[in-house]
Amino acid sequence: MCYVRQRRRSQVRAMKTNPFSRGCRPAAYAIFFLAAGLAFSAGTSPEFPDPGHPHMSRAQQQKLGLQAAAQVYQQVPVLPDSSPETQYIQALGKRLVAVIPKDRSWPYQFHVVAQKEVNAFALPGGPMFVNIGTITTVDNEAELAGVMAHEMGHVYMQHSAKQQEKSALVGGIANIVGAIAGGLGGGVGGVAQTGIQIGAGTLMLKYSRADESQADAFGAIVLWKAHYNPMALADFFRKLQATNQNGPQFLSDHPNPGNREEAIQNEVRAWPPENYLPDSPQFATVRAHAPGVHAYTAQEIASGAKNGRWQAENSKNGAVFRGASANGTPIALVPAAPISAVQPSGKFQSTDVDEAMIDRPDNWQVIPGQQSSVTIAPRAGASGGAVAYGVVIQSVSLSGGSEANAQQVTSAIAQGLESGDSNMKQNGNVETITVAGMPAGSLQLTTVSPMLGQDGSEQLERDWLVAVPRGGGKAIYFVFVAPQANFDQLKPTFDKMLSSVRF
What we know:
Blueprint: H1 2-14, E1 30-33, E2 38-41, H2 58-75, H3 84-97, E3 109-113, E4 120-122, E5 127-131, H4 132-137, H5 141-156, H6 159-166, H7 173-186, H8 188-194, H9 196-204, H10 209-225, H11 231-243, H12 248-253, H13 260-269, H14 281-289, H15 298-306, H16 309-317, E6 348-353, E7 356-361, E8 364-368, E9 373-378, E10 382-383, E11 386-387, E12 390-397, H17 406-419, E13 425-426, E14 431-435, E15 438-448, E16 460-471, E17 474-483, H18 484-499
Helix pairs in contact: 2-7, 5-10, 5-11, 7-9, 8-15, 10-13, 11-13
């Protein structure tokens, strides 16, 4: 038994293909992986770490990642979902995602970039891009799975959100997205040198060595649970480090946290024996096909991005990002629900919302928000900060002072919504109405609903903005929200809620 353990250890060091067995190591022995903050008793299966709780919500991270991913599709050549490489990467990604606890997982997406250099990057909330150059460089499927699992670790640990908290760029989601857009398409000099990696690097603000250790530890756990050799992750990074082949930007964005091989080996040594999978037939097929795919250098990609080449070619080739609308507005943040699931009851109850009282259907919940906002919505109509059905109520201070009238206040709020990350568009002109005996402005807007339609495609959302000046440069506004197809059905409920408002 001890002889088998020693023989397997030798094989792991030499070939990195066979399992590492604990053999007769004493049961009380334990390994503590300081860099990642994980500890496991000898012989116990590894458990995923606690990712922590950054201030940026899950919905904000998903929205940010989807907006950035839509920008990526405008800046680089992306293979369509029908390509063999993308189908394989998506299947491999699905296999890796399956081992992550669902309550801590993310809606990961997997895409392939037609770029020769080695790179892979994951955006907040889950969108991931893998270069063709990575597929052609790996020696086996476990190495490719290791690169992907490592990137998934950055999403799981929410490193981008945590880095944003430390950055002077933080000024709200809109400012962060603006910084991303500038990095992806605005910095012509930097982009001309390294292509999209500069944009992705700007988004990620460069991972720290501690981040890399955590992503390594997470990736190793994913590999082990998916029956791939965790040492393949260290093998890939060591190979790039030794040869510097096609990977300077990748290595720059992923600083070596130390002795990766030793750290991962120490981790694996504490886990139960595992029979690791060999390369799949699909990997062999794609590995042989990928070198024939027309790929571009970073320099060529940067040049094409300046004249809009990739946006046009991606559209022509059917490489369309499904996670956001054409203007980058993220969709499908709220799971699709039939109208029966959001129907208001006929019984109303009074609710205190900061500076006002309002009656609401008793089967709609009250959801406190940030910056003096409250959402009233059916349970199936809102999720993670996104609202598909309901009303958002917000108290604000305006720069117009106490002299601004209802129309001016409503117009100012509408302009703020239009210029923000909601991408709302005004539909018609401001009308003057009365709310609780006070002059108010009423305006119709449209945007893309965060809930897909019943046919699985994006749908328009109708938003009814009502703003009431409160004097002293203050105002309170209501945005009644529903998909355009269902808005008229809910309008009587919205009217009843608005007529019940009292200050």
